[in-house]
Amino acid sequence: xxxxxxxxxxxxxxxxxxxxxxxxxxxxxxxxxxxxxxxxxxxxxxxxxxxxxxxxxxxxxxxxxxxxxxxxxxxxxxxxxxxxxxxxxxxxxxxxxxxxxxxxxxxxxxxxxxxxxxxxxxxxxxxxxxxxxxxxxxxxxxxxxxxxxxxxxxxxxxxxxxxxxxxxxxxxxxxxxxxxxxxxxxxxxxxxxx
Length: 194
Known about the structure:
Helix content: 10-25%
Oligomer: single chain
Number of strands: 11
Largest sheet: 6 strands, antiparallel
Number of helices: 1
Strand order of the largest sheet: 1-4-5-11-7-8
Order of helices and strands: HEEEEEEEEEEE
CATH architecture of the largest domain: Sandwich
Distance between the termini: 93 Å
């Protein structure tokens, strides 16, 4: 009888501890989705609208030529779409236009613009190296760089060998302070002063 009584107490103890653990675990979760233990893949992400990040931690009265960073992402599929970064305070717009049929499935695409003072503007697109079935159009603003004109700049891209190469077949749009060109894959690009 002593053995049965000890087993019964031990069993009640483990049931109590397990119940408390489950209660505390469930208390910290708002929904059943919070309990999922497997990582989410890009295909499972649901992004309802583009995310536009204003310059990070900058004062309204910052000096011209300060470092800035902008970011946007969206899921774009076979129907095509557009990514756009617009610095409303500067009226700068850089964009990526993807025609219908350029992608065979939904992809999470992102665009990041980093301005390094007055000397350089970098444009990074992810996923790096993605190939499109149809050419996409990039419009990269150089108005982020203060006090420069088209003649002051060279636009480079990162080629397949990992070397920076000048883009020669771009259309310069001086009135809008941007450069437009087409490509069939993602890379990194930057404007630099001559």
